[in-house]
Design goal:
Strand order of the largest sheet: 4-3-6-5
Low-confidence stretches: 1-24
Oligomer: single chain
Number of strands: 6
Largest sheet: 4 strands, antiparallel
Mean pLDDT: 89
Number of helices: 10
Distance between the termini: 78 Å
Helix content: 40-55%
Radius of gyration: 35 Å
Order of helices and strands: HEEHHHHHEHHEHEEH
Strand content: 5-15%
């Protein structure tokens, strides 16, 4: 008796092991039906699109929470949809038209972008804008900021007499860099206001400028060092280049299609622009 039970248990166990493999021969896909409501199918695809439109805070919920929640929502929406026996309001019809237009246009854009972002195109833009262009120079400077020209002239005279620039900056500069000895670190062209930048460029390393006035006050500037600015690597600017290529590709295709299309905007002539706020027209 014991042997028969053991044999039966073994057979059942072997069948149980085989069943999952048999059941999973066809993996679920977007067309897999997960529920049917009065003959209307709800598929994995419906659930995936529903999830993609959820607010970000809900998309971060665990899958085991989202799955039943989204399915419940779709079932309820289907029941409500099936219970509707009236005429759709104008705003709903128009919204559906707009939604279809937007989705199809987005699909066209995806196709345009697929051909635009090639490695060759990205490299070509990089070479043209960065690799083969002189990136210019960077400057390392310090300054002492003062409220009046007289004070700036006195500081200039003090430094010309042998005073340590950093020590004077810590003592007398009214700017935020004063406690750091007036150091501004490294910067390129365009980083400083024009008059300040021009004074820096005119100096040689180690030289101290005459007082320079800007909207911030009076500056006594010391140029510490100059170096050649290094070009960014391709990885540094890849996202910037990709955005440029995307915009150019889409703009070019839209311009091409627009030129070939028959577009008549005469219906908009003479219409008061405030009508765009009269939402009651589509109720």
């Amino acid at each position: 008796m014991t042997k028969r039970l053991s044999l039966t248990a073994a057979m059942l166990f072997s069948v149980a092991l085989a069943m999952p493999a048999f059941a999973q021969e066809t993996a679920p896909d977007a067309g897999t039906v997960v529920a049917t409501v009065n003959g209307t199918d709800i598929t994995i695809g419906h659930m995936l699109i529903a999830r993609a439109t959820l607010p970000q805070q809900f998309q971060q919920l665990p899958d085991e929470v989202l799955f039943p929640g989204i399915l419940d929502q779709l079932v309820q929406q289907t029941i409500l949809q099936q219970s509707f026996d009236g005429e759709l309001k104008t705003r709903i019809k128009i919204q559906l038209e707009n939604e279809r237009r937007s989705l199809v246009a987005g699909e066209v854009i995806e196709g345009i972008l697929a051909g635009a972002l090639t490695d060759e195109a990205i490299q070509e833009v990089y070479n043209a804008e960065y690799a083969n262009v002189d990136p210019g120079e960077e400057y390392n400077a310090s300054h002492i900021l003062l409220e009046t020209e007289e004070a700036a002239l006195a500081v200039k005279e003090e430094i010309d007499g042998g005073a340590d620039f950093a020590a004077v900056a810590r003592e007398k500069s009214t700017g935020p860099s004063g406690p750091g000895g007036g150091s501004l670190g490294w910067f390129g062209t365009g980083a400083m206001v024009p008059d300040f930048e021009a004074a820096v460029i005119a100096l040689k390393p180690g030289e101290v400028s005459a007082p320079v006035q800007t909207q911030f006050g009076w500056h006594v500037i010391k140029l510490n060092e100059v170096r050649a600015k290094s070009a960014p690597t391709l990885d540094d600017v890849r996202q910037e280049i990709e955005a440029k290529l995307r915009n150019e590709a889409v703009d070019a295709r839209i311009a091409e299609l627009t030129a070939a299309a028959e577009i008549d905007r005469s219906g908009s002539e003479g219409i008061d622009a405030s009508i765009i706020s009269q939402f009651d027209l589509v109720e």
